[in-house]
Amino acid sequence: MGKFEKVVAICGSPRAEVPDQKSLTQKMLNTFLEGLAPPQVRVFFPHLMNISYCKGCLTCWFKTPGICDIDDDMGLIKEEIEKSDLLILASPVYVDGFSAQTKTVLDRSISLLDPLISIDEEGHCRHELLNPRQWSSVLISTCGFSELDNFDHIRNHYRAICRNLYWKNAGEILLPASALGFVPRKYEDKFQAITNAGRELMEKGEIAEETMNFISREIVSATQYRDFLNPFFKKLKQR
Length: 239
Ligand SMILES: Cc1cc2nc3c(=O)[nH]c(=O)nc-3n(C[C@H](O)[C@H](O)[C@H](O)COP(=O)(O)O)c2cc1C
What we know:
With 239 residues, the chain is an alpha/beta fold. It is built from eight helices and seven strands; from the N terminus they run βαβααβαβββαβααα. It is globular. The N and C termini lie far apart (54 Å).
């Protein structure tokens, strides 16, 4: 019996599911799900849904607890998240953080919280969950540049969310130099490791540090990457 029954994934790349465009975020997510092989899974593509920004009206806290004032597709995502035991956030790095599509879903998730503030064991302010329960979560991300430190902000942001929403951080799958993601054979061993990571998570409840390090290891220097990509970019600019 695996560790997780019901999985919800948010695929926050606006290129996912778009004909003639290849989203590496989606490829990583699909590869991970192959290994995870959960009994039930729902994958949401926020850019293909009707999801508005949070208005900050706090109706979901003070007027209709847990129910957002905006009646749109976020209701369905929230309903599924509440029934799940594992949440996967799959987002490309956009301007050093989550894509707007992913961030909008995260903002709208404040309806999961109770407004009353409590102090945690580190003396830090937190909101309690409106309906306390156990969740695990995983971050899947890719970025255009070649250095691993391009994930510093999204990773810190994700870890802060885990603390604030009471998610157990079960792993972070980070793949830099996304331009290599669709180059034949370049990332084959990394994709294999991403499938293994999914399997590990289902069997053990978390992904081994070693597996995550293998996936995120930089395989080209910044200058090699620049020299590989710039000729393509020059051609594209001339069209
Ligand atoms: C609006 C925008 C902002 C981006 N910002 C960054 C960035 O700050 N750092 C980075 O390394 N890559 C950045 N990228 C590159 C993407 O992370 C990269 O192309 C990634 O592969 C996109 O994921 P996808 O293939 O799933 O669409 C950005 C791309 C776009 C379109």
